[in-house]
Model the fold of this input.
Amino acid sequence: MTPLYQRVAFIGLGLIAGSMALAMRRGGLVAEIVGTARSAETRAIAAEIGLVDRVTDTAAQAVEDADLVVLCVPVGAMSAVAQEIAPYLAQGATVTDVGSVKQAVIDAVGPHMPRHVHFIPGHPLAGTEHSGPRAGFAELFDNRWTILTPLEGADAAATDRLTRLWQGMGAQVDVMDPPHHDLVLAVTSHTPHLIAYTMVGVADDLRRVTDSEVIKYSAAGFRDFTRIAASDPTMWRDVFLTNKDATLEILGRFTEELFALQRAIRRGDGDHLHAYFSRTRAIRRGIIDAGQDTDAPDFGRSKR
Amino acid sequence: MTPLYQRVAFIGLGLIAGSMALAMRRGGLVAEIVGTARSAETRAIAAEIGLVDRVTDTAAQAVEDADLVVLCVPVGAMSAVAQEIAPYLAQGATVTDVGSVKQAVIDAVGPHMPRHVHFIPGHPLAGTEHSGPRAGFAELFDNRWTILTPLEGADAAATDRLTRLWQGMGAQVDVMDPPHHDLVLAVTSHTPHLIAYTMVGVADDLRRVTDSEVIKYSAAGFRDFTRIAASDPTMWRDVFLTNKDATLEILGRFTEELFALQRAIRRGDGDHLHAYFSRTRAIRRGIIDAGQDTDAPDFGRSKR
Done:
C-alpha cells in the first residue's frame, strides 16, 4: 500500500500518540514517523523503545517537512504548541489533534494556523487508564470511533485523506460539528469521569476511618470507578476547564436525577427505584448490540 | 476430601446460587445439592441444565434434612422465605444467606429462626451484571471476599465450617459486625451503583435528543457505568430500601464533594481539579496491589 503521508510528526508522545504510531506502522500507513515531547525523559524513553523513527528536541524541528502534524498534548497546552510550530509548518500540510474537547482546541489552535495548511480537528474515542510513552498499543483504535470536526470550508481531499488514515488504524470515523461533539462527550465521557473521580474521593476520605476496607472490598462495584478515575490528571483538568458549559449542564441534570432517586430511597418508594433500574438495564443491551462492549461477565475479571 | 455438608439447599437459583453450586461441585465440598426457586421457569431451567442435583417445588421441601440452607433471594423476600422454611429446618442445620445488606436480613430472618439451627448471615462480594440460573460460573468467588456477620453467641464450630466452605469455593473470608458491613458496602458498592444508575438514566434522557450517539460513543468512559447499571433491578431496589441510612449518608458526602468540584470547574480552578484527580489515581494503585483487579488496560477491552 502506498503510504498516505510521507512524514507524520507527533507533538506529545503519550498513550494516544504512541498507539497511533504503532497502528500506523501496523498498517504501513506512513513512510516516516517523527516525534517530540516537552519532557526530556519522555523523549528518551520514546527513543529507547523506538516508538517513532526519529525523536527531535523541539516541536519546530519535528514538524519540518511533515505532511501530517498530530497535536497530542493536553488541551491546555494546544495554544502554545500551535504558536510554536506555526512558522515551520510545510506548505499543504495537514494539522490535526486528538484533544477530548473540540471547540476549545479550535479557539486555541485555529488563530495560529497559516493559510497554507489544513487544520482538521479530531478526537479518537479510545484510551486506557494508563499514560506515557510506554502505554501505547497498536490495537487501541480497532473498532473504536474517531470524530473529526472539520471547520467550514475545510478541504475535502485533506479531510478524506485523514479519514482513511484513521480507518487504516482500525477506527470508524464520524464527522460532527464542534459544539455537538462537546455535548456528546460531556454525556458519554466528561461527566462520568467527574463522577467517578468524586466517588473515589469520597471513599478515600472514608478510608481513613475504615482502614483499607474500601480497597479490599472494591470488587463490589467501586473498582470500575477507580479504573476510570485513574486517568491522567492533567488531561482531565483541561477537559473540565475547556468543556465547562456542557459539563456543568449535564452535571445539573445528573444531580437533579440523583436527588429524585435519593428522595425515593428516603421515602421507601420501591416502585420508582425498580422502574428506574429496569430502564437503565436496557441501555446496556444497546451498547452491546452496537459492538462497543462484549457481553462477557466482567466483575470477576481477573479470572478470565 | 470429606464433604463439609451432606445436603445443601438453595432457596433462589440465580447468579449467586448457581455459582455456589458449581463452585461446591468443583471443590467436592458437599454431598448433595438441592434447590428451589419461586419462578417455575427458573426451576425448569435449573433442572434442565443440571444446576443442582434435585429441584423441589417448594422451599419447605428443599430444606428437608439439609444441614446447610442458603437463602439466595432478594433482601425484600427474606422474611417471607424464613417464615416459610422455619418449621421444616433440621436439627443443628446452618442457615446462611447471600444478601447485600446484613442488618436488614438479620431483622427479617432472625425472629423466624428456631433455636435448634445456626443462623450465620453472609455476603459474597462477587457478581456480574448478569442474573438468572444460566448466569453462574464456578470461578465467581475465586480470590473475592465473603463477609460473615455471625450474631453474638454464634456457635464457633458452625461459623468455622461455613468459613471453610467459602474458602473451598475460592473466597477469602472476613468476619464483621452487621452495621459496619452495611457502611463499608454503602461506600464500595451501594452508592457507586446508585450513581451509575443515575448517570445512565441521564444519558437515556439525552439519547432522545442525540439519537443513538450516546450508545455509539460509549467507549469513552460511560460504558463502565452501563455495565454496573445493568445489574438486577429487584436486588438493587431492595438494597437501597434496606440500607437506607448508610446509603443516604454516603450520598450526602458524595454530593458535597461533587458540588466542590463543580464549583472549581465554574471558577476555572485548575489547581483544585488537578490535586483532586492526582489523589484518586493513587487509590487505584492500592486496589491493584490488593489483588482485586489487574493492571491490564481496560478501555479497549474487546481486543483482549
User: Anything to note?
Assistant: Chain B has twelve helices and nine strands. Chain B touches chain A through 110 residues (CB under 8 Å). The beta strands of chain B are 5-11, 30-36, 54-55, 68-71, 94-97, 118-119, 122-124, 145-148, 172-175. The two ends of chain B are 37 Å apart (CA to CA).
